[in-house]
Structure formats: C-alpha cells, structure tokens
Amino acid sequence: MHLLLIEDNPDLVENLCEFLESTGHTVDIAYNGITGLGFAIENSYDVIILDLMLPGLDGLEVCAWLRREGRDTPVLMLTARDTLHNKLEGFASGADDYLVKPFALPELGARVGALARRARREITQQRLIVADLQYDPDTLRVERAGRHIELAPIPLKILALLMRRSPGVVRREEIEREIWGDAPPDSDTLRAHLHALRTAIDRGFESTLLHTIRGMGYRIAGPNGQ
C-alpha cells in the first residue's frame, strides 16, 4: 500500500517506517501538519497515519480540512491522549480509527490493513456517476447516456481514478503512480491512454467530460463543472 505518515517524533517515524516498509508498503513522511496536509491533497494514499499533536496544524485540523475538501482517505489517528473525550474529538474531525501510544507495531499494521480493505469494499460497492457517464466497479461496465463503452484496462483504471476524484483535478504524477507505481513509463504512454479514454467517453457526445488542466493535470466533470 501507499501510506502517508504525519508524525513529528523522529524516533517513532524511523520505527514505523522500518516496520511498514519491511511488510512491503511505501511510506511518505511529513513532520508537521502543514506539509502533511499538502501531501494528502496532492497525492493518493491508501491510508493516512496521523499524529494528533503536530506543529503547524494539529491532527484534528488536518483531518477536518481533508474531510471538508471531500477527501475520504482512511485516517488512523495516533495520540497519547486516551480519554473518551479525546477519542470523540478525533472521530468528530473525521478520523476512521484511533490508536493510543504506546502501541504494538503489529496492531498498527493490522489496523492499517483493515482500514484499507474497508475502503476498497466501499469503493467497489459504489457506482461512480459524473453527468451522464456511469461506471460500475463491480461489473467494470461503463456507460454514457445509456450507450455501452468498451475500455482497455489502463484507460479504465484512469477513468475510475478521475471519476472518484471528480470534479477535482488529478495531477499527472498521481495518475502515473496509481497505475504504474514507482516505475512510470515515458510521458507519451500516459498521453496515449488518455487519448484513448477521451475518444471513448467524449467522441460523438455533445459535451466534453475529460478536461486537461494545463500545467496541473486532468479531471472529469460535467458541463456545469460538477
């Protein structure tokens, strides 16, 4: 999985990264709330591991900001505060789970895995709809205005990512990471897949749904921007 760790304790960061990377995960690190929020907005993560007490913005503020922006990435909040009031504050800000320090690393790993699995189930059970374009992740069926659209696997993955984030802009680097991980192909490859996707979902229809945002990335949105 691709994880974001927002934690200001260097020793804990080192221990967590060593454990998570040893189990095959990729971990991005932010040592304060402002940097962590930027990472969370600019990139796609399976789970965010978020400390409560942070310089800049605290964990409650970071989590609440993400939820206001419509980001539904699962958040596991870490804290030394173990009162019921503190936990309720964390959940009220949008956290999905709560782990009190000190904790056992295997427990953290299990909670991260459970959050990611639950998020994947929720995504696959939810039909994605933007304007007259629909995608059913369970059947992999794409339709626009009732017309069935055939897509190859990679354009289909790009479509799912853009529709999940609609009407937000998804950066080119984020699309490449989502599809190819840390070994993206040359720039023409992504361009070719986007061209195939645009041809499939826009050609022959009155309105354009796939938009290129120059210098930023791509988005799928209807005529009114929704």
Textual characterization of the structure:
The chain is of the alpha/beta class and 226 residues long. Helices cover 44% and strands 21% of the residues. The chain is built from eight helices and twelve strands. The strands form three sheets. A five-stranded parallel sheet has the order 2-1-3-4-5, with helices on both faces. A four-stranded antiparallel sheet has the order 6-7-8-9, covered by helices on one side. It has a three-stranded antiparallel sheet with strand order 10-12-11. Helix 2 packs parallel to helix 3. The radius of gyration is 19 Å and the shape is elongated. It starts with a strand and ends in a 6-residue tail after the last strand. The relative contact order is 0.10.
What does this entry show, briefly?
By secondary structure, this protein is an alpha/beta fold. The protein has 8 helices and 12 strands. Helix content is 44%, strand content 21%.
Rg (C-alpha, Å): 19 Å
Shape: elongated
Which assembly state applies to the chains in this document?
single chain
Structural class: alpha/beta
Q: How much strand?
A: 15-25%
Order of helices and strands: EHEHEHEHEHEEEEHEHHEE
Uncertain runs with pLDDT below 50, 5 residues or more? none
Q: What is the CA–CA distance across the termini?
A: 30 Å
Fraction of residues in helices? 40-55%
Biggest beta-sheet profile: 5 strands, parallel
Kindly state the number of beta strands. Answer: 12
Number of discrete helical segments: 8
Mean pLDDT: 87
Query: What is the strand arrangement across the widest sheet?
Result: 2-1-3-4-5
